[in-house]
TrEMBL record, chains A, B:
Cofactor(s) this protein requires: pyridoxal 5'-phosphate
UniProt organism field: Ancylobacter moscoviensis
Record's keyword terms, sorted: Aminotransferase, Pyridoxal phosphate, Transferase
Protein name (Swiss-Prot/TrEMBL): Aspartate aminotransferase family protein
Entry similarity comment: Belongs to the class-III pyridoxal-phosphate-dependent aminotransferase family.
Classification via PANTHER family: ALANINE--GLYOXYLATE AMINOTRANSFERASE 2-LIKE, PTHR45688
């Protein structure tokens, strides 16, 4: 049996055969294989060549506009005028590392930190979510004195050597080293109705297991909406008990907000807020610069100080004027465009439509919050990734982009730019209804 | 005794006391301490607030223009019109991850790969030099079956957990783990006149040492101009013998071109070319996007394939239209502006002036190639970091920005944008002459 990640990749990946490609696409695929080799992963049996983007739409070389329900990076909309303008202005003024002073990094840092509980008052800027999680693991190890981490079964937290170890979904074979222990995703099908207790017990058992093997616990690391596990948001507050277990065992709680952060869940800026908890470390990335590479770690000053006493840490491209100007424009656009309220409003409507669809389709669950929804497919034979794969390609030919997640790749992952409208949500629901009919 | 990195940092770092700061600078320093906490490192006793940049100059809030002999990222010049125009155009068209197709990533990849030996035909794009070195270590481990690396004594290769282990200069106390062994920098004061043999013998001894401890050798990783060790370029070709030792022991040679790459040495695009060698893996970063975060790993297809058989690797922000458009403009600017020839020409002139200065100042060596030069200070009492520190601050007040490197922080590190002129080089040499007089 193939590993989960391999299933997810193959579910949506270009296989190199099958569909006959348009000449411009075929030519690019050949160039791609030559330069990028085994590192190349393309979406779709018939890959898309993008030529332009705006708002909720990507425009392809086939002359069609594709409604984007996949991309969580351009969170305020593709080519948002405010972000475009900020980048165009700053790139012509200056762009330099942060060992010099300049205003915009501090305007940004203060505006960002104001969205966190008061205890989380220090920010380290990095370039990618991977760099943020890599640093977060080091902070947690230093503060706890431990080395062991608990993560979920199909977790993905990034691509550095160290972060891959806490990302079971990246293993094509084999499994994470012994200092990494996994717990099941917070699925009612596994834990029943008392999710808080069930998930906390699983975390406690994982800690007990690693300590029995002589590995001191350092922390619990979860994506607060469990994206790659298949999108789990409910019931609000269920994470609280697991955090208490983590703290009682001397570990730190790292909230990975790379995917749920910046308003996507529709209930505030951060996914952890939904659970009424205060993380020790928060990491963020993807939507932070609407595509400009910027990411960050927010933590308590004493956690950062302890680490900085041991190691020099400097990140050349991070906290630059250009990165922070782009990111500041994103924060302003989220506010000015009312995107958190929009995520809640459109997400609620889409959730209701998907739940109605559930009554007449092989859908085993509709989950999520705001504009991060998961639609799980299954039949009496179990998880049904073939249905998800059929939908992904079927929706592509109907002009809608989407992807899959979960251990079996049977969960349709809905995470559009936050600027989509009720009409866009209806276009997705209508198309799914037709395809599943 | 403080560790090398601590010395280097304190040599040029803002100490928080002493100079009375301009009100705008003092206010920013306070905001900075609050938001960035222990993670903040600022240059100079009296930090600079930057408001604008162009060509070889940074303009500060004190109304002065500072000639930049420090920054190796804006390699084609601050706010180069070609790069500014490329970013301004692409950011308004589209910016998305590379699981879709688009032209510019391939136009870039092919132009970049054409600068490498034919065997090095696959490119993985990342966002930072740290991510590139992190991936390179994984590639080398997979291909060699080993885990042990040899690096130089004061090496710096980046900031991830794994890359910090091969960066002795990042340790404020303690030292790298046992799978990392160090060799002295290629200094004639250590190895005498037969540098090739001496350095190769040191690498061989390090490999023998690790294998005696049961650690299988994976590779030799060096910055091909040994930047943080204090800048060592000569004699051309000396690295060849060490690479032969590496290959004979079953290891891979990783050339870290993050600092010397993209024409800085004046003898071609890459530092390794100076040594007539063909690396197994090449990493690059800093100047690649003239400040836009883009970095990369170039290797042989079979090395990349082996790794990709084990792990999924995807980098969301890398290989994007915006990143590759910026990087393509950099390659074009290097060509069109004749920057490699300029690095050779201006570098030769500056080297000659510095060597003349050596006769009348406490300079123990002038080293380097092209526009990466090192001026080492010492007296009969040994290395003289105080002279380097005095010069760094003295030059700042004369309107010239510069930094230090080396185990003792006694090497003035000269690495300006490659667009500087003979007149600029004379300004630096004149100012140094005055200050040392």
């Amino acid at each position: 049996m193939k590993s989960p990640e391999l299933q997810i990749l193959s579910l949506n990946a270009f296989s190199g055969g099958g569909a006959s490609l348009a000449p411009d696409v075929a030519a690019l695929v050949e160039r791609r294989k030559k330069s990028f080799g085994a590192g190349s992963v393309l979406f779709y049996d018939e890959p898309l060549k993008i030529v332009r983007a705006e708002g909720a739409y990507l425009h392809a070389s086939d002359g069609r506009a594709y409604l984007d329900f996949y991309n969580n990076v351009p969170t305020v909309g593709h080519c948002h005028p405010k972000v475009v303008e900020a980048v165009r202005r700053q790139v012509g003024e200056f762009n330099i590392h942060s060992r010099y002073l300049f205003d915009v990094a501090h305007d940004y840092a203060e505006k960002l930190l104001a969205t966190f509980p008061a205890s989380l008052s220090n920010l380290v800027l990095t370039c990618t979510g991977s760099e943020s999680n890599d640093l977060a693991l080091r902070l947690a190890k230093r503060m706890s004195g431990g080395t062991g981490f608990v993560v979920t079964k199909t977790a993905y937290h990034g691509n550095t050597a160290t972060v891959t170890e806490v990302s079971p979904s990246s293993y094509k074979h084999g499994k994470p080293p012994s200092h990494v222990r996994t717990v099941p995703p917070p699925d009612p099908a596994i834990f029943g109705n008392d999710m808080a207790q069930g998930f906390a017990d699983a975390v406690a058992a994982a800690i007990t297991g690693m300590e029995a093997d002589g590995i001191k616990f350092a922390g619990l690391l979860v994506d607060t909406i469990f994206s790659s596990d298949g999108v789990y948001a409910d019931p609000p507050g269920f994470l609280k008990a697991a955090i208490e277990v983590t703290h009682a065992a001397g570990g730190l709680f790292i909230a990975d907000e790379v995917q749920p952060g910046f308003g996507r869940t529709g209930t505030g800026m951060w996914g952890f807020a939904r659970h009424g908890i205060e993380p020790d470390i928060v990491t963020m990335g993807k939507p932070m610069g609407n595509g400009y590479p910027i990411a960050g770690v927010v933590t308590r000053p004493e956690i950062l100080s302890a680490f900085c006493g041991d190691f020099g840490y400097f990140n050349t491209f991070a906290a630059s004027p250009l990165a922070t100007a782009a990111a500041l424009a994103v924060l302003e656009a989220i506010e000015e465009d009312g995107l958190i309220a929009n995520a809640a409003h459109v997400g609620r409507h889409l959730m209701a439509r998907l739940k109605r669809l559930q009554a007449k389709a092989p859908i085993t669950a509709v989950r999520g919050a705001g504009l991060y929804l998961g639609v799980e497919f299954g039949t009496e034979d179990g998880p049904a990734p073939a249905i998800a794969k059929g939908l992904i390609n079927g929706l592509r030919y109907r002009g809608i982009l989407i992807g899959a997640a979960g251990q079996y790749g049977n969960v349709l992952k809905i995470r559009p730019p936050l600027c989509i409208t009720i009409a866009h949500a209806d276009m997705l629901a209508d198309a799914m209804e037709e395809l599943l009919g």
